[in-house]
Amino acid sequence: MVSSNARIPSVWTIADALKVHADDPTTTMPVIAQDFPVIDDALWQWDTGALRRITGETVTFKGWYVMWSLVAERAQTGDDAAGWHNRNAFAFIGYYYSRNGIDWTFGGRLLNKSADLRPDEWSGSLIMRKGSENVLDMFYTSVNTDTNQSVPSVSSGRIYADDTGVWFDGFETTTEMFSADGLHYANASQDPYFDFRDPHPFINPADGQVYCLFEGNVPGMRGEFVITDHEAGRLPPGYNVGEGAQYGAAAIGIARLVSSYGKGDFSRWEMLPALVTALGVNDQTERPHVVFHNGLTYIFTISHHSTYTGGLEGPDGVYGFVSRHGLFGPYTPLNSSGLVLGNPSSAPYETYSHFVDPMGYVQSFIDTLPAPGTDPQNPATYRIGGTLAPTVRIALVDDRTFLTEVHDYGQIFAFDEWADSRQPDIRPAT
Ligand code: FRU
């Protein structure tokens, strides 16, 4: 077996990205209605995830659907466009619960303030601890936007529920998982705009080990990368790599848990080379997550139009890669281009932070919707979202994906029995 450490990352090439096109109906989010409902008037709500197993499946707890969301108080940020765009420095993880997966009640903060090592809580994953009745692990990103610190971290607690609702205890302390080391992933001294966040732990069914995906950047000094044929791919005749391509350095990071999952010890991880890099293509691949389906390994990640480099273009949305040879690749872009679901060009910033679950349900939040009749790229007025988008479903068919279903705003699906039937064992770390 090739050691996971010896591997070279798969590349999302410039030639692949040239195949990205908005508005293909199989890879485009539906246009959201101007009168979309708002789940929570008091809070801005954005990145969201359902309670899930470490094997990925969404589950309920005692008949309740549960989700975490990044939220900020509208009263604190301002209940207007400026407040929405300022929300990141006020972000905390809130939780919601629901009987039907559609109508949500806000339950409050998930983490106690004593758990906060830094002012802000950014994205991650809420996971039922395998082998326990009600222990939960909230993997998240501990962030200080003033000092440019961003550390994947975890806090643990317990979940309780009765006929009236859901509540938690614990979540009082935080353990830092790992940091950007400048060797496997860029750190702040190499790249002042470095990304290092959004932990997504899971079990690799092939080896029973616990791994964690996260958003990173290729190590090296920002702007000094040389884009070779390896990153460019098979370019059309006469195509010249665009100016600024060397600023695109996104990486889908991975680490392996070395300390004990069974003991809830998440303090020691082995940093591994990225699974996929986007050198020359894009500077951000956020919230990466994995789905094992029909013997293939799918990785999904969200990215922005604004983070493409070298003159490349693509919509805000979710992108993906597939491997036929297990977790460590090699990966090729889904749908040839990498685009899985992008925003329509008539509403280019309508949704973001898509999360694909193992059943193919895709959940996201509403960002901004241009007012009808205005230029969608530069709208005179737009409606701010700050709430959840309609959940859609995609079919994963080998190395292609297809939009197949549109459901309710913020709807979450859980199939506990199906989840029970797919539980591989965790083997102790070696
Ligand atoms: C995606 C994202 C995440 C980050 C969070 C901060 O929408 O940028 O990468 O954790 O939002 O709000």
TrEMBL record:
Residue positions binding substrate: 123, 197-198, 284-286
GO molecular function: levansucrase activity; metal ion binding
Keyword annotations from UniProtKB, A to Z: Calcium, Metal-binding
UniProt xrefs under InterPro entries: Glyco_hydro_68 (IPR003469), Glyco_hydro_beta-prop_sf (IPR023296)
One Pfam family this sequence matches: Glyco_hydro_68
The keyword Calcium belongs to this UniProt entry's keyword annotation: yes
Protein known as: Levansucrase
Taxonomic lineage of the native organism: Bacteria, Pseudomonadati, Pseudomonadota, Alphaproteobacteria, Acetobacterales
